[in-house]
Amino acid sequence: MAILLLTSSVLGVNAVIVANNQTSEYLVAGRDLPAGSPIALADSATAQVNLGITAGNYLSVGDLPSGGYLLGPVRKGQLIPKSMLASAVIDERVPLVVSSAMGLSSGLIAGASVDIWVTPIDDENLVGEPYALVLGAEVARLLEKTEMFNNSGPDVELWVPVEAVGPVLGAMSSGSKLSLVLRPTLADE
Predict the structure, then answer these.
(1) Tell me: the pLDDT tens digits for 164-186?
(2) 27, 52 Cβ separation under 8 angstroms
């Protein structure tokens, strides 16, 4: 009797595992994709995963809409949530290219969040107290400089709020030093 009970429980557990092990093919980011970027099949790869009841929240193969844009960053290898897609860019941010006066963190990649700090320099070349000008700007991409004798780091294209463009350009044109400070997020851990 014990052998029959043991055999039936093993078979029952095996049947439950087989019934619940339903994997499907979903789209994952093929590279780091910043917010606001258009998404195409060339930007994605596929992965076989079992998402259970959350399957409807992610793009499966064949669900990618044409002309779609990302509302937030998606890291390479991450499943692409349907909630991150829009038919047009609807946030009120614009791209702005800046150079950092200090070195860039090794964790600075597309999709990372940075604060823009300003160190004011007045007409007499006196350095003022640094202050945060923009909090939580998103890195769109790093722009490597191609000049032969250039010792400075890459320029950084950022997504900043529209209302921050004037103050950032004002700080740049006044000769103030801009520095980008990485804001670690849970995705960086």
Answers:
(1) 999 999 999 988 999 999 887 54
(2) no
